[in-house]
Amino acid sequence: MLRRAVLQTFRQGLAQSFFKRYAVSLTETTVTHQPIETSDEAGERTVPTQKTGDESGNTVVVAPPEFRFIYPEFLPDPAMERRNRLREKLERMDMLQRRSVIEIPEFYTGSIMAVTVADANSPNKFARFVGICIQRGGSGLRAWFILRNVVDKQGVEILYEMYCPLIQKIEVLRLERRLDESLLYLRDALPEYSTFPMDMEPERRLNNSVVPINPLKVKLRPRPWLERWERQNLQGVEDLNLPQRFYDRAEKVAKPWEKYDLMLHYRKTIPAEEQEKIFAEVHSQLQQQELKRKLRRRRGSDNEY
Amino acid sequence: MNQADLSKLVSALRIAVKPKPKLLSCPEGPAGRLKKLRATVTALVKYERIELNYPRAEEAQGYAERLISDAIRNGDCHKHTMEMADYWLNEKQLVHKLFKVLVPRYQNYNSSFTRLVLGPKTYPGYYAGTAILELKGNPFPALQPETHNYHFWLHNVLLEEAKKEFRSAREERNAGTTESVTAES
Fold it and tell me: Residues with Cβ < 8 Å from B20, sequence gap 6 or more?
C-alpha cells in the first residue's frame, strides 16, 4: 500500500457558515461539513442556482456563495475613493466578454499553472511558462497573478494579467490551496519547493467537488531573507529557529488590536449585499460559458472515438 | 489596486462611512484609540443615549453599527462574533443585552441602528462641538420632534388655495395694466 501525503480536504458548510472557511483551524477541518461546489460540479447539479423569492413573488436568481472565492476579481477595489459604479459595471461586461473567448479557470494561490502568451520575438510565436501561483491580486480587468518557477537554477517569477489579450491559454495543472494566501516566502525557501517541470502534465483531480489544501510546511534557507517572515504569522513555513530576540522584537512591533478593529475590516472588504448583487448579475453568463465549454469538451472527446 | 478581503462576510452599514478613520490622540497611541472607543461603545450599549464630543461619537457609531450588524448576521454561536462582542463590551452582562435585547429589536430594521445628533457647542469657536449618540428604539423621549407631512391638514390646504388665488389675481391685474399700456401706445 503506497503511503501518500495526506491532503486535507477543504469542507464548507451551508450558506450561513461559509465564512468559517478561514476561521477554522486545520484540526477542525476534519469535522464533517458539506463540500464546496466548484465550477465543474455546479453545472451537473440539478439545482445549481439558489432561487429566492422577493416581495413581488418573482424568483430572484442568486449566485452560489462560493463564487466570491472562484471569481474574486469581479469584486471591486474596496477603497472608497476609487469606487465608480459605472466603471465597475462596464469592466464586468468586458471581463465576461473576454471569458467567452478564453477559458480562465478556477485557481488559488498554491496551484500549479501553465500560461501560453503570444510573443512576437519567440520562434514559435508563443511563450509557455509553468509555475506555482504565489500571489494573486487586482480587481476588474487589472486582475493579475504571479507564477514562480526555478529554471536552470534561476528563480523566475512572471506576473500575468488575467484579462490581457496576449494570453492564449491558461491551464491549471494542479488545483490545490496552501495554508497561506501569499506564498512570497518561496523566494527565501529551498529551491526544490519552487521547481516544477516545464513539461508537466495536467493532473486529474481525485475529488471534483472539493479543493484540497496542501498542508506542506516549507523549509527556508538560512538568513538573510527578503522579509521578516517571523512577523507575518505564516502557517506554511517550518519552525524558523531564530534567536529569541527576533520574536521579542516582533511582539513589540506587533499590532494585536488590529484583529478587533471592525471598521478596518469593513473598509477592506465589500459588504455581502453588494457581493450578492454583483454575482447575481454575472453568474448566469458565467454558468452558460461553463456549460458551453463542457459540451465542447464532451463533443471533442466523443469525436476522438 | 487591491482585491477585497474574502475571509469575512460583513453586512452593509447604513451610515455614512468615511474613507479614512479618524485618529484619536491618546498617550498609548493606536492601541489607546481602540481602548477609548471600547469605553464609548460599552457606554452606548449600556445607557442607550450618551452625550460626548463629535469626533469620538462619529467613530464609535461605526463600531457600534458593525458590532450589532455582525451579531444580527451571525448570531451568538459564531465564534468570531463572540470574540468581538467580548472585546468591545467591557461589561459582560452587556454581551447578553446585545444578543438578547438589541438583536431582536434591530432584526428587521432597514435603517441604521444608531442616531447621531449634533449637540450644543458650549464655547464659541471653530471646533466640532458635542454630539448625542443614541440607539434607535430607546425608551427615552425623542430628541428631535417627529417630522410629519402636514400638507393635507385643513388650515394648510386653505392657506395654499388662498395663495394660489392671490397670485392669479395679481397676474390678472398685471396683465390688465400691460394691455392698457400697449393699447395706449
Answer: none
Chain B residues with CB under 8 Å of A139 CB are: 1-4
Contact status of B3 with chain A (Cβ, < 8 Å) = yes
Number of H helices, E strands in chain B: 6, 3
> What are the domain boundaries of chain B?
11-135, 148-184
Class of domain B11-135: alpha beta
* Closest-CA distance of chain B to residue A270, Å: 6
Q: How far is A24 from chain B (nearest CA, A)?
A: 10
pTM as predicted: 0.80
Under 8 Å CB-to-CB from A104, ≥6 apart: which residues? A98, A162, A163, A170
Place of cell 467580548: B86
Per-residue pLDDT of chain B (185 residues; tens, 9 = 90+): 578 889 899 999 999 999 999 999 899 988 899 999 999 999 999 999 999 999 999 999 999 999 999 999 999 999 999 999 999 999 999 999 999 999 999 999 999 999 999 999 999 999 999 999 999 999 999 999 888 888 999 999 999 999 999 999 999 999 998 887 777 66
* Cell numbers for B102: 438589541
Q: Please indicate whether, in this complex, the C-beta atoms of B7 and A19 are within 8 angstroms of each other.
A: yes
Partners of residue B66 in chain A, C-beta under 8 Å: 262-263, 266
pLDDT digits (tens, 9 = 90+) for A184-227: 999 999 999 999 999 999 998 887 788 999 999 999 999 999 99
Nearest to B84 among A142, A262, A270 (CB): A262
Q: How far apart are CA A106 and CA A284, in angstroms?
A: 17
Asked whether the beta carbons of A114 and A171 are under 8 A apart, the reply is yes
Q: Which residue has the cell 463564487?
A: A67
Residue A194's identity, in one-letter code, is S
CB distance A106 to A133 below 8 Å: no
Subunit contact B10:A265, Cβ cutoff 8 A: yes
Nearest chain B alpha carbon to A259: B84
